[in-house]
Write a structure and sequence with these properties.
Keywords: Hydrolase, Lyase, Signal. This protein is an alpha+beta fold. The protein is 30% helix and 20% strand. The chain has 2 domains: 231 residues; 136 residues, Trefoil (Acidic Fibroblast Growth Factor, subunit A) (Trefoil).
């Protein structure tokens, strides 16, 4: 369209920026002069697809308008955004066998597949700009797509109780099981995902392959399922490629540099400490005294995931038994390659981070908001409280 003589690129760019991006997309995601983010609701109030629709628009408008700053807002939100569309919030739990639970799986499968298709669109646009969001967080999106495809193919999948805050004040809701509503709805989203992970990257995606076999050639939206008109489709035509083909993109850098740190909690300035050097040693909060058991070696593993090792013992920080439950304690253990020893540092602003286990998306939490010495560190659903926000102070 840019070269079509009857198309005014400047007018189109102006409309996208002034009618859509500023008053709608930017305002919803991060807030601006038009209003606060998420319509002044609690940050978890809106389902993942609300965020993802605005993220997709942000990235697309940034690209079309040659606005790197707008594009970067969309990419940063994908990695670290506060709402349910960012990758850890949209995909909160890792399960065995290469699966990961989608945020709306307990709601219905129509909205679940809508969100998966939107995240794929975001990743595909970013790939074409040289940024590999498909691979961010160790291919977390692939695991979620496999989970959703498997369930909609008629197979059983694990489900962990999902909690979120709604309304303006964050009233707690929960879902204890996956929803069969709209199960097996045929939605034209899978060819893009399959052709990236399998034919571009050479990875395995057996459940997505089975989903494509059930759907056949991917045309436009399916008249049998009116909700599928949310997505344009024609993925077989647009994205089919031979194995090993396609350009390359780079996974963005992590947001924390490798180094030795102490972790100061925003609640009272005390630090995270290992109370022993043995296997299974407790991790607690204490006043900083310059000791090595209060210092942590942080190493980027790629895709925004990190290992955290105690300087005194060399043992790794982990979630006990790889639990997904509220209240599971942090402890030290011999280093492995297991997900329970991998963490993300997700910015909460003002130099503070959520120290988030990738397995559960439940950040390091000072038990009971206590300011006492020796309080255990556990994982808990993110509440925005200061007992879950940590500043990384470099040890020179």
């Amino acid at each position: 369209m840019r070269d079509y003589p009857g198309f005014n690129v400047e007018q189109m760019q102006d409309m996208l920026l002034t009618v859509f991006y500023k008053p709608l997309n930017e305002r919803f995601l991060i807030g601006n002069e038009y209003g606060n983010s998420h319509n002044d609701s609690y940050i978890q109030n809106y389902w993942a697809n609300w965020d993802l629709s605005n993220m997709a628009a942000t990235i697309a408008i940034g690209i079309f308008c040659d606005r790197q700053d707008i594009y970067d807002i969309g990419v940063e939100y994908f990695k670290n955004g506060a709402g349910n569309g960012s990758i850890y919030n949209a995909i909160p739990f890792l399960h065995p066998d290469g699966l990961a639970q989608w945020q709306e799986s307990g709601r219905d499968q129509a909205h679940t597949q809508l969100g998966v298709g939107l995240m794929a669109t975001i990743a595909e646009m970013a790939w074409n700009q040289g940024d590999d969001l498909y691979g961010w967080a160790d291919n977390r999106f692939l695991r979620a797509a496999e989970y959703v495809a498997k369930y909609n193919n008629g197979e059983a999948v694990p489900f962990t109780t999902y909690e979120w805050g709604s309304g303006r004040n964050g009233a707690i809701n929960s879902q204890s099981g996956i929803s069969p509503a709209s199960r097996n709805e045929m939605r034209p989203i899978w060819a893009m995902i399959y052709n990236h992970y399998v034919n571009r990257k050479g990875l395995s995606a057996p459940n997505i392959a089975a989903r494509m076999a059930l759907e056949g050639t991917e045309g436009g939206p399916n008249l049998k399922y009116p909700s599928t008109f949310d997505q344009l489709g024609f993925g077989t035509l647009l994205y089919t490629r031979p194995a090993g083909s396609g350009d390359k993109a780079s996974i963005p850098d992590g947001n924390v540099s490798n180094g030795i740190y102490r972790f100061n909690v925003r609640l009272d300035g005390k630090v995270m400490e290992a109370d022993n050097t043995i296997e299974g040693a407790n991790v607690i909060k204490s006043t900083y005294a310059g000791k090595e058991n209060q210092q942590w070696s942080v190493t980027h593993l790629g895709g925004g995931q990190y290992s955290i090792k105690n300087v005194q013992s060399g043992r790794s920080l982990e979630v006990t038994n790889g639990s997904l439950d509220h209240g599971a304690k942090f402890q030290l253990a011999a280093s492995t390659d297991q997900d329970q020893q991998k963490f993300a540092f997700i910015s909460t602003g003002d130099g503070y981070y959520r120290i988030t286990p990738v397995i559960s998306n439940k950040p390091a939490d000072v038990t009971g908001l206590s300011t006492a010495e020796g309080v255990p560190i556990q994982q808990w659903r993110y509440t925005s409280n200061y007992n879950q926000q940590w500043k990384l102070e470099s040890i020179e």
